[in-house]
Amino acid sequence: MRRSIVATALLLTAGIIPTRAQQPAPAPSAPGTVVTSTMRNWGARNATLLMAAFDSIPAAKYGVKPTPLQMSIGQIASHLERSNYILCSRAGGEPHTMTARDSIADTIKAGWPKDSLTARLKASFAFCGQALASITDATLSDSIAAPNGQKYVRAQYLLIYVADLVDHYSQVANYMRAIGMLPPSALPRPKS
Q1: N or C: which end of the chain has fewer CB within 10 A?
Q2: d(Cα 20, Cα 18) in Å, to the nearest integer?
Q3: Is residue 20 part of a domain?
Q4: Dihedral pair phi/psi, residue 160, rounded to 5°
């Protein structure tokens, strides 16, 4: 199963499997960055969708979670912020300096005001944009040591980052539908 997910992701990245026709045209790729530009574009698209979703959800709904074992909307925002910094700093090789507030558990940060959570999440997406900007297709096979001592290639972190955004956007979209809201990707597109 895992191989088929990775294979599908690589085929999508290479443009072999078409994506939805509604999506805007991706930014042109510089030579040697076809794969990385595609991944960055997907990351940016899903970051935009996630921010639109979190911005549109009323603050009073940030504690909503479908079951007691699932994350609340606020926890998802906090979790994404932390994950973005971890994955993008490793993929891009740019360290993120942790603050005392960064080390607070997601379950506690989830109770912070909506404005704080969304500002922090937006900052993490900006960090990712900067950290991933210098990656090229040639650097995707670079070996990167994780804190647990295992070695990963840069492509794994980039792929996990994009997959994490897609996964959590799907999660938030389902939560939005459960509370009677349309997720940003389901809203009618403006006529051009």
Answers
A1: C
A2: 7
A3: no
A4: -65, -40
Does some domain include residue 178?
yes
Please check whether residue 53 is in contact with residue 138, taking contact to mean a CB–CB distance below 8 angstroms: no
Q: Is residue 26 part of a domain?
A: no
Distance CA 64, CA 70 (A): 10
Domain that holds residue 135: 33-184
CA 21, CA 102: separation in Å to the nearest integer?
Answer: 39
DSSP annotation of 110 reads T
Q: Is residue 51 part of a domain?
A: yes
Q: What's the number of domains the chain is made of?
A: 1
pLDDT score of 53: 98
Instruction: Give residue-wise pLDDT tens across range 137-147.
Output: 999 999 998 88
Looking at the DSSP assignment, which residues form a beta bridge with residue 144? 152
Q: Check whether 123 has a pLDDT greater than 60.
A: yes
Please give the angle made by the CA atoms of 169, 87 and 67, to the nearest 5 degrees.
40
Q: What is the pTM of this model?
A: 0.81
Q: Residue 50: give its domain's CATH number.
A: 1.20.120.450
Structure tokens at 62: 């940030």
> What average pLDDT does range 61-70 have in this prediction?
94
| Sequence-ordered list of residues with C-beta below 8 angstroms from that of 82, at least 6 positions apart, any chain | 102, 106, 124
Mean pLDDT to the nearest integer, 62-66: 94
